[in-house]
Amino acid sequence: IHFYKRPLLQTRMGCKNGKPVLRLEDKEALAKASGLSQDEVEVKFEAFLKDHPDGKLRKKDFREMMSQALPKKDSSKLEKHVFRIYDTNGDGYIDFVEFMVVFYCLSDGSPDDVLKKLFRVFDVNSDGSISIKEMQRLVKDLYGLLKHSDPNQASKELIAKTAFSEMDQDNDGLVSMDEFVRAVLGQEQFSKMLTMNIMSIFMDEEQ
């Protein structure tokens, strides 16, 4: 069972007397999807509440997590892109369910599921497709990380243009989620390189 197919996980968390509570159906779904027991999910929820008593991980907290995983200058540029993956309902916060959904999808999901999550990094305005402008903006913000992993990296302009043309298979000027997944799974050079660098952020975060 994969997270993105479970609409009940995209809902808001429950609340009791002003304190966030994990609803039974969310606990069951998270346990099933992550392979944890319901008790283990509950323990993780309590730990999350300890750090975020109102059940909301804010951008400021997220920034601190990112800066531990990445050099300062890279993390400040990339934070907003990575935040989009987690904040699935777009309310400006990450709640426990959103956090767990992404964490376990990126750890244990199929390549297809993982790429569908990562698509949100590229889709800057969250309209369901990637434009050349969005690609240029992401490459610009990601470039410090790309140069760090390969000092002889191609120019920003070339990377954005080539990755976009690899993905835009029907040449309509927009890249759909399916086109994105196909390009990366098809081992297209620049598409894969960009995606692997974004994945490395999550690997660093988890360690």
Summarize the structure in words.
By secondary structure, this protein is mostly helical. Helices cover 64% and strands 5% of the residues. The protein contains 10 helices and 4 strands. The chain has helices at residues 24-34, 38-51, 59-69, 72-86, 96-108, 111-122, 132-149, 156-167, 177-185, 189-206; strands at 14-16, 19-21, 129-130, 175-176. The chain has a two-stranded antiparallel ribbon. A two-stranded antiparallel ribbon has the order 3-4. A hairpin with a 2-residue loop joins strand 1 and strand 2. The longest helix is centred in the C-terminal third of the chain and has 18 residues, at 132-149. The radius of gyration is 18 Å and the shape is globular. The protein starts with 13 loop residues before the first strand and ends with a helix.
What percentage of amino acids are in beta strands? under 5%
Average per-residue pLDDT, rounded, comes to: 82
The termini sit apart by 25 Å
The run of helices and strands is: EEHHHHHHEHHEHH
Structural class: mainly alpha
**Are there runs of 5+ residues with pLDDT below 50, and where?**
1-12
What is the helix fraction of residues, given as a range? 55-70%
Strand elements, count = 4
Order of adjacent strands in the largest pleated sheet:
1-2
Our Rg estimate from Cα atoms comes to 18 Å
Outline the biggest β-sheet. 2 strands, antiparallel
In one word, what is the shape? globular
